[in-house]
Design a protein that fits this description.
single chain, 356 residues, alpha/beta, 9-stranded parallel beta sheet, 11 helices, 25% helix, binds pyridoxal-5'-phosphate
């Protein structure tokens, strides 16, 4: 018997989510964001399920190369562009589009010897203050790029900091972005998952959803189900031991959980080395045999403990869902004080992925 942990990737959920997003994207092309190994879901399987996407967005040339090797012909955007000048010839070979966010990247483009000119995405900093040129420089940088023989076309790009927050919205960034780029004859891309749902005016030439493709919600106040999305990943394991505690007995490292009355405890084959958050507190929801119960005590490297009182029939071998179709990953993330993005991306390579 192998260790019972498994991440199931639901191909039909991915195609369902793609259709939901397409219906909301209007005329914009749908650029599927598959960075971080497709948010932990596995790039190869996700790309196969999302083959109907109009374009891909990845972090690095290695992921882009993988997509080309798999036969995907759509445009591929490098979200942070080249990290060194020697990447540019490969970008040209593979027909990748490169984000340009720095003077250094413009200098590399000026001197590179390329087999064909590149599509570039001129990244403008409209308030995120992470990557991109100041809005006041937009026209000058556009003109510099437009003059380069290595540039085949320019798309204007920005990224929102608060699109998921109903009070703060995106207007404070989007209005500035529009003012700074008014009159430039170029398409634009701005919308992440949250903006795709709530701000059609920001859709532009390409929408760039990530999280919602995988069936989680970027909004604190709206569930994925309310958005019409289906979870693309279920993290499953099983009970491998049962302990009977008496009042006063503790569980796990630090003996941080102490039973107030007799308690049956199940030990689950899943720990922080699998990507389960170590800081998830007692009370974080877990499903055992389909019944909702709670994590108790500290998460260990390879195991965690659950309260079996709500599931008296459960024993060694009982099925456990850490998150997935019956337990939204957003709920687990909230209980653990983080976001579903982080849980997905943290899934450890040692956890087998099974596509179904
Ligand atoms: C990650 C990323 C996205 C996707 O964000 P989601 O919130 O997952 O939709 C879009 N654009 C850029 C530049 C990104 O880095």
């Amino acid at each position: 018997m192998t260790r019972p942990i498994l991440a199931r990737i639901h191909a039909s959920a991915l195609t369902h989510n793609l259709a939901v997003l397409r219906a909301r994207s209007g005329q914009a092309g749908l650029m599927a964001v598959v960075k971080a190994n497709a948010y932990g879901h596995g790039l190869v399987a996700v790309a196969a399920s999302l083959a109907g996407a109009d374009a891909w967005a990845v972090l690095d040339v290695a992921a882009a190369t993988r997509l080309r090797e798999l036969g995907h012909r759509q445009p591929i955007l490098l979200l942070e562009g080249a990290f060194s000048p020697d990447e540019l010839p490969l970008c040209a070979e593979l027909e990748l589009a490169a984000t340009v966010h720095s003077e250094q990247q413009i200098a590399w483009l000026r001197t590179a010897r390329l087999s064909r000119p590149l599509q570039v995405f001129l990244k403008l900093n409209s308030g995120m203050n992470r990557l991109g040129f100041a809005l006041a420089e937009a026209r000058q940088r556009y003109a510099e790029l437009a003059a380069l023989p290595n540039v085949a076309g320019i798309t204007l790009m920005t990224h929102f900091a608060t699109a998921d927050e109903p009070e703060r919205r995106v207007d404070w960034q989007f209005a500035r972005f529009q003012a700074a780029t008014a009159g430039l004859d170029a398409p634009f891309t701005a919308a992440n998952s949250a903006a795709l749902f709530d701000y059609p005016a920001t859709h532009g030439r390409w929408v760039r959803p990530g999280l919602v493709l995988y069936g989680a919600s970027p909004f604190a106040g709206r569930s994925a189900r309310e958005l019409g999305l289906l979870p693309a990943m279920s993290l499953n394991s099983a009970i491998i031991s049962v302990q009977q505690l008496q009042a006063g007995d503790a569980v796990g490292y630090g003996a941080s959980f102490v039973a107030e009355q007799p308690l049956r405890v199940g030990t689950v084959a899943c720990g922080y080395a699998d990507g389960y958050p170590r800081h998830a507190p007692t009370g974080t929801p877990v499903l055992v045999d389909g019944v909702r119960t709670r994590l108790i005590g500290r998460v260990s490297m390879d195991m965690l403990a659950v309260d079996l009182e709500p599931v008296p029939q459960a024993g060694v071998g009982s099925a456990v869902e850490l998150w997935g179709q019956a337990l939204p990953i957003d709920e687990v993330a909230r209980a653990a004080g983080t976001i579903s993005y982080e849980l997905m991306c943290a899934l450890a390579p040692r956890v087998p992925l099974r596509i179904d």
